Amino acid sequence: MSSWIIRRVKDPSKYWEIMDVMKDAWGMDDYTEAVPAHLLKAIDDNGGVLRVAEVNGRIVGFVLGFPALKPNGSLYHYSHMVGVRRAYRGRGIALALKLAQREAVLAQGLDLIEWTYDPAQGLNAKFNFAKLGVVCRRYYPNYYGEMRDSINRGMISDRFKVEWWIKSERVKKRVNGELSPPSLEDVRGIADSVFETVVVDSCIRRIEKVKLDLDSEVLLVEIPGDINEMKRYSLDLANEWKLKLRSAFQEYFSRGYVAMEFVSAKVDGCRRNFYVLWKSPLDKILRGEVPWK
């Protein structure tokens, strides 16, 4: 297995290679939805953070972000994309890119990185919460409208906007391996489940009941074991899940709950995925406190 290096782009022709990574990573038919090379250059030269992962001189991954403003004028970093060629996934490259981004943003004197992602994608959720230590309090319905890449085509483009408080004790401990995410057994005994789900075919599940009137301190919100497999099985069922996730997250976020962990486990031979929501002040979570110990 080849090792990689993380660095800035030195040769302007390499920006086109980054676009090729986008096509591969998201299954784009063409460059229509890719960030163009000239904009990558502009971001890289003007306060943004663009880092690439190279294997034997070939770009196989990248992370892209730029400074952004809150409505109150406070400055943070918005991470727009991180992508790795499919043939190079599972090697830790995405994590290395995000940690390089964190170091670059810390050097700029900022303490917050935010980005959006599809909360129904379990692998992304595990990466963001279990590996990086993000939290989420915001849910955006149909954030991008219609998307045409192979991953998102035909799907409602609802998104989490997560917060990565890169100076916090929680993040420091998580990326250093000092704060492990919980197991499903850790949280099941203290949490109420927002959804009741049933198996419809093999490991494909559907939501039978949504409970929007819970008031427990800790909640579990299930997502599909594999939303991409569910989409192949039934696009309608996948979007039905997304609409019910929308109602649950909007309700409980509005009531002060914070998505602060993600747990994934094999149950009776099938993958089950759950977000852990805790009704707790954000500063308590960022100190690294948890409700199951």
Any chance you could write out the topology, listing elements then pairs?
Blueprint: E1 5-7, H1 14-26, H2 37-45, E2 49-55, E3 58-69, E4 75-84, H3 93-107, E5 112-117, H4 122-132, E6 135-140, E7 159-165, H5 169-175, H6 184-188, E8 192-193, E9 195-201, E10 204-210, E11 218-223, H7 227-233, H8 235-254, E12 258-267, E13 270-278, H9 282-286
Parallel strand pairs: 4-5, 8-11
Antiparallel strand pairs: 1-2, 2-3, 3-4, 5-7, 6-7, 9-10, 11-13, 12-13
Helix pairs in contact: 1-2, 7-8
Key features of this structure:
9 helices, 31% helix, seven-stranded mixed β-sheet, 293 residues
Describe the structure concisely:
The chain is 31% helix and 31% strand.
> Radius of gyration, Cα only, in angstroms?
19 Å
Main β-sheet, in a few words?
7 strands, mixed
Question: What is the average per-residue confidence, as pLDDT, rounded to a whole number?
Answer: 95
Question: Cα distance, first to last residue?
Answer: 39 Å
Identify the overall geometry.
Answer: globular
How many H/I helical runs?
A: 9
Question: Any low-confidence stretches, pLDDT <50, length ≥5?
Answer: none
Order of helices and strands: EHHEEEHEHEEHHEEEEHHEEH
Helical fraction equals 25-40%
Q: Estimate what percentage of residues fall within beta strands.
A: 25-35%
Give the neighbour order of strands across the main sheet. Answer: 1-2-3-4-5-7-6
Number of strands: 13
